Input
Amino acid sequence: MGGKTKNFLEHVMMFMSGCGFFRPHILRYFGVCIWIACCSSIGLAGSPASWRGQSITEFTSSENENFAWQIVNDGVMGGLSKGNVEHTSDDIMHFWGTLSLDNNGGFSTVRSRGVDFDLSNDLGLLLLVKGDGRTYEARLDSTATFRGNPISFLGKFKTTPDRWMQVKIPFASFTGSWRGRQFPKETLDTSAIKRVSVLLADKKPGPFDLRVQWIRTYGKGQGEKQSTTKKTVLSERRGLVDTAVADGRFTILKKLLDAANLTVFFQWDNPLTIFAPTDEAFSKLPDGLLDALLDSESHEKLVTLLSYHVATGSLLEKNAVKKKSIKMIQGGKVTVTSHAKKTYINDAVILDADIQCADGIIHAIDAVLIPETKE
Output
């Protein structure tokens, strides 16, 4: 390294260290970047040293403990995607796994627990990542809600295989989404960020691998504080679970869903159709069967049974009849027939069709659907 370059680097490093703004590993990183910039004669404008914003996380051990990063896969819906997260000794978050589209799956996410950041002074997110060529999403939850649930705002970023790169995502480009519904008129309240996530849902099955060295903001002093008094317009329709509870005919179904921890079905990002047995339908089961299903040793059987009553999409009765066969989340299929002005799902009759919900459709049926056993 030339004498002038070395002296410049030493002075910059001493200044940065004296300011007390950066940790030792950040100083080393900035030093390397400045050295590259000087040796390449490209100046400092394009290097990380020009960053002006605030740190969300540098993935230090103490920050990782506070953020409590956790994996949420599409397994909550019966999907088969597998995600993993680890924090390396050099303060990098490693997010990797395999994305699967089987069983209506297709996502894996690593997300923080509740946080509290005011990013309204800045223009957007700045991340240092090394990926695999796939397109990921940075997600932020804030004050906006729909039916009492937080709207998640997403900003996509594309990676280059095996190359560290900075990605900028303007806050203005983040779009709101809740269970597959888009909210183009909703804006992200950057003054109250409540959760941070990184998600993969690019509809491409196969392995994925992403490393994130830090998440920050950029554009310090250029942001605009947004009104916290703005209210999201809520739909008059309830969600599937709330509708079923309010109806009063599905108390046993709700009890079983709770026991199987399957109410997460209805936090999926796509609309669903549920063929819901009434309490009277469950009363037709052999004596003792319900109690047996509620036993902890029968958990898998209970999950299989319940997921055989749920299909993806919002299927009206007339469209279900046209399809003649519907693939359920459980993986099996039901047959749909119509005669004598009645619609049958296997041997069950639809008692009340097309109950419209905010996140799908309920069809009340008079019998429990029993999936075929595989020999």
In short: The two ends are 71 Å apart (CA to CA). The chain has nine helices and 20 strands.
